[in-house]
Amino acid sequence: MAGSSAEQAPDYRSILSISDEAARVRALNEHLSTRSYVRGYCLSQADLDAFRQLSAPPADAQLFHVARWFRHIQAILGPHATGQPCGLQASKGRRAQPQWSPPARSEPCQLRLYNSLTRRKDVFVPQDGKRVTWYCCGPTVYDASHMGHARSYISFDILRRVLRDYFKFDVFYCMNITDVDDKIIKRARQNHLFERYRQKPPQAAQLLEDVRAALKPFSVKLNETTDPDKKQMLERLERAVALAAAPLEEAVGRSLAGEELDGPTQVLLEEAKDLLSDWLDSTHGSEVTDNSIFSKLPKFWEEEFHRDMEALNVLPPDVLTRVSEYVPEIVDFVQKIVDNGYGYVSNGSVYFDTVKFASSEGHCYGKLVPEAVGDQKALQEGEGDLSVSAERLSEKRSPSDFALWKASKPGEPSWPCPWGKGRPGWHIECSAMAGTLLGASMDIHGGGFDLRFPHHDNELAQSEAYFENDCWVRYFLHTGHLTIAGCKMSKSLKNFITIKDALKKHSARQLRLAFLMHAWKDTLDYSANTMESALQYERFLNEFFLNVKDLLRAPVDVAGQFEKWEDAETELNESFYDRKCAVHQALCDNVDTRTALEEMRALVSQCNLYMAAHKAARRRPNRGLLESVARYLTHMLKIFGAIEEESSLGFPVGGPGTSLNLESTVMPYLQVLSEFREGVRRIAREHKEVTW
Fold this sequence. Notes:
flat, alpha/beta, EC 6.1.1.16, four-stranded antiparallel β-sheet, 692 residues, single chain, five-stranded parallel β-sheet, 52% helix, 24 helices
């Protein structure tokens, strides 16, 4: 571009005569501010003389006129133009590319997880690049899996999928099965003894006598119980037994026989099962010596647990460990803790010395719930019903010490070890199995909120005593409680809903959506209102997917797939981008699926408004844009595990667990119908008779 003839070379003599360089540059900047800046302006010798003494543009941002002309001259004449005389030949110099500056950028948000070790959201930084080592406490398998289990394992499944499929971490996920435990031992003995009792049907009078005998210790237990929920449960059981016993007592008093006695007898046997099982165990439990009795029960319920997890679309762990298979490793683990000075042998059992550990440099006991240290009720619950006798408690140096290895009593399974026959303590099981697989430090440890103390605090202490470190777990994640219609859920209180029963009412997707609509670390209330919200969300998304599929079924040529974007499309696309950013920010914020789902709902609402406006204007909406939105939503729902089948767009029509893909089966017929409909519309428009 040639310079304008109106442009005159300025008189720089007064400026060049200024001796102070800083003042000279300021004067030059002020003079240049009165001139128009035209790229390609033909430079004169006076221009070059004014900049000859400058080797670089001034750093002061206020002198931007000088800096701009300096770069302009340098771009046209090359980097040495300001230091060498070029005469009037300057305007014929070689052009060069102007200096490029990268665009300003904001820092990307980082994934933060709520860490129970700090009770805050910490930036998640794995120890080994993108590899994440994760250990999750699995179930103690002695009964049917319930919605409390679902709360924990669905929530961890969502977190695992998001870390793996959204944030692209390489997750190595380990979970255990506790198949050796006080609860399992007691339940196995009770089941065995009750079945033996029932196989030799007692006479009606004998059954009544046994029930009265069982009620004596039961009444003592009831009177000593202070927990209101547990007391209420025991009172319900007492009433049920009394109601069932009354007809049988009347029948015996009337000297009835045959079927008139059999019916009431069977009713009382069923109602008094728990009462009699507990009584039989207290009187004959030590006689159970067959170890297969203790393995049969957990094997059955483990298989049921895996079936339930599969039905809920929970991914299986990469590695599953069973306590019964790791006893040698547990023995070695306990021995090293003793060798390191943090364990002691007492009467054939081995205990962890909490006082010695807490007073050692570099160690701390009670990292997760320090305010609970010394809570004897919680500590005894952690030890188990079979391990809190006065004799066992007297073996400890401190009431806060806990069992690493328990000497087996008659009626308990046992394994040989250096301290005599015994069995693992509950807390040591996870430490030994996780330590064997994941080493001295793992990235994530997960479990239910109620496991924080004493179970997880004891795990941390004994593992750090074994490895002599203070970082066995980097991030501790705990899922929130589950309540049932506002009431506490507990298997021991018989106030629970099994997963199988829940799946009879709602699909796995609906249950997962209910969990996604709540923060994973907060209490979730499983109620009719909660499930209705999940059902409404599912219907809302499904209607959108069906509308987009209907739009995509309309025949169109290849070029017709690409339609001109008007303001409405540009606005929707901008909103689409903003919503995706909002979803990303929500997932970075402790995997906040509740907010993510709300952003997805808002995106669908905007798409619905867009489609409605086009329908009102008798215009076809942009199929490519809507398809992009629908595929994004499908992708996110797959990441969350809410779409379990292979589906390119939306919820599969066939439903989970069906071999028939209904959508692909009927698609050819839908396509023909759609083409026929479009043909009729075209004919109608040509004849201007009907507009659809």
